[in-house]
Structures are given as structure tokens and as C-alpha cells.
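In this supplementary section we document a worked example of the pipeline. Step one takes a protein sequence of length 462 as its only input; no multiple sequence alignment statistics are reported here. Step two produces a three-dimensional model, which step three serialises into C-alpha cells for compact storage. The input and output of this example are shown verbatim.
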Amino acid sequence: MLDLDIISDDSNLLNSQEDSKTSKQQPKLREGYKALILLTAINMLNYVDRYISSSTKELFKEDLKLTDFQTSFPLTAFIIVYMITSPIFGSLSDMGINRKILLFFGIVSWSICTAASYFSTNYAGFLIARMLVGVGEACFIAIAPSMLSDFFPPEKRSFVFTVFNACIPVGSALGFILGGYLGKAFGWRKAFLFCGAPGILVAFSVFLIQDPERGFYDTVAESKKIPFLSTFKYLLFNPIYVVGVAGSVAFTFAIGGMADWMPTYFHRTYDVELGEAGLIVGAITAISGTVGTAFGGFLATKLQNRVRNHFLFVSALGLIVGTPLVIILLFVENKTTAIVLLLLCDTSLFMYVGPFSAMIANCVPSIVRARAFSIQVLMIHLLGDSICPIIIGFINDKTGDFKLAISVVPMALGLAVIIWTAGWYFLPTINEHNNRTRKYDDESIDFIRADEFLEYGSSLSM
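The serialised model returned by step three reads:
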């Protein structure tokens, strides 16, 4: 039971926070939508710069005399730096530092470091430049979502972040396409220069938007602080969250390998030019990412009252369809058939995006929701896409069998299928989960103490 004295003692806090809210200036939705459009466009540029290295892999490999193992380190090094620095910039933002200044720094930083690859004369210089790209992108991703959240009330945020994240497959696709064609036409160094330099000018556009009043739409539950260790222990005892994250780690491991190596796979297996390989993979990513994400969200909504654990069901279904297609793709010798298979495969795999995010949001109280997402992001990068590309490169270097090396992708997808399917069948539904712990809903959890919070988490594993 909750301590009523704690609630009574903190009633003044509730009143003072309500008074504080009325003194804040409500952000204008018009300014919010302007910021959404601008930050979404910049986020697309973010992913363009991130995936240039994947589409120019063969070019800098030959020029710098690298192994396949070494060609995967730029993306892995980027992800590691990205993981480490994201919390730092998030903390700086929470300290009240002007977010437009931080955004400007992030965009300029990653753009300069992307363009700096033009000046690389050896592998070490190139690797350092790609690592430092992670600093700027971490700054942007740590701050842009929180700024958008302050522009919009909670009921509009689902739409806002759908739009903000919809540019990911498009930006990734442009990275594959531009990197492949610019690299082939002008050399790999100029591909990085041409894609990175414009971002320096784009960075100034952040001064056209407002830095909104912080926390105007936040509730008391969202502003209450729980120690990070207590949050982590609670999440560890939440079976829906644990199963969801475990499956997403295996999934991201596979997708990380596909994203980094698929243009090279088409180039080597089907003897297509790098520019054409980048165009193929880029176009497939843009189409399948958009269609798969939209269809997955639509299907989850339709099955909401018809299938138990519908979020896990749709996520697992996409993998059940997509995993065999990846396996078949490895044995196909015809380029056209491979393109069709990859399109169908990626469309199926992208079905998880909407349902999975909704599941993570719904299975935890708002008081820990942001940290639940941040821990999930940390885990998928730490154990997922930061290591798969170099494993593929290492296996290929040792065996000379590219198909064998890339077979780790369907293996990881198969593991994700097992995890999510078992979760769909065996776990309680989110409603059952919430009903078992209803005394700790968002209203009553406002003033919960750390020890009660851990007791709440432990009750979920029983």
C-alpha cells in the first residue's frame, strides 16, 4: 500500500506545480508544426550522413587497402560514440542550456566531421572522423525529441513522432543512393564532402524556430524523479518490457548487418555497379520502410480487440514472414528475383516499428517511460547493430564466403521470432499486466517512494 502521509505531505507540491504551470506560456502549435517540419528534414539529413559509409565501402576499402573486417569499424565506432555521448547532451539540455544552441552545435559538428573524411589520407584519420560524427548526431537526437514534446500535448505526440521518424528510411535510402553515385562519379572522399558540407549551412535554420517553454504539458507523474538504479531494477522485473527489448536486440543485430552490407552484397553477388547497388538498396529501404511501418500500425489497430498481445503478435508476424525470405535471398542468383525478395522481406520486417514502440510505451508507467525507451535504445545498439557488421566482415575475411558471413542475419532474426512469439503466447496481455498493478497507475504513482517502486517491479515477475 502507498503511504498516505507521503501523499498528504506532497499535496502542497502538487498545488505549487499546478500554479507554476499556469504561469508558463503555452507553446503555439503553429510554431510547433514549423519546428516539426524543420527538425524532420534535418533528421533525414542525419541518416543520409550516417549511411554514406555503407554505400562507399568497396571504394574506401580498395583505396585504403582494408579488409572487410576493417570496413565495418567506421559504422561500429560511430554507434559506440553515439551511445556514450547521448546521455551527456540529454543532461545538458535538462540543465536548462539553450536547446537551439545545442542543436546548432550538433548539426555543425556532424556535418564538419562527415565532410572531414575528404581529408583522410589513412584509415586512422577516416575512422576518427566517422567516430566524431556520432557526437553531433547524438546531440541532435538527444535534444530534438524533447523539444518537440514541449511543443505538443501528449495526445498529439504519437502523430508528431510518427512524422519525425518517418524520415529514417528515406534518409537512409538517400545515404545509400547518394553515396553510391557520388562515390562512383567523383570518388569516395568527395561523396562525404558533398553530403556533409551542406549541413553546415542547414544548421543555421534552427534559429528560425522557438525553444518552447519546458514542461508546460507535463503532469506531476512525469515530473517526479525516481533514481536511475530503481528504474532499472523495476524494468528488469517487467516481463513484457524484458521480452520486448530482448527481441529488439536480436532484430537490430540483424538489421544492422543488412544495412551496412547489403549494397556490397548486391555489388559482389550480382556484379552491379556501386551506384546501381546503392540505388537498389536505397529505393527498397524507402519504399519498404514507409509501407511496412504504415501497414504494421494499421494491422495492430485492427487486431487490438481480436488478438491477445496484438503488439507482439504483429511484430512476430512480420519476422515470421520476413526471415524465410532472407534465407531464400541468400540462394537466389537472379538479380531481379533478389530485388523482389528484398522488397518483400524489408516490408515485413518494418511492420514491427509502430506496434513495438506502442507496446514499450504502454507497459510502463509514465514516470519511467522516457528512461525505458533510452535503456532500450542503449541495449539495441550495444548488443545489436554495433557488433553485427564487424562480425560479418570478420567471417568473410576468414572464410572468403560472403553468403556464409551474412547468414548471421537470418539466424538473429530467427532468435527474435522465438522471443517475440513466446512472449505473445505466454505473457499476460498489457491490460492484464496493468490490472494486476492498477494501484500503481499514473495517478497513484505520483509520490511513490523508491522502496515501494521496487516492490511494484518485483510484483510483476510473480
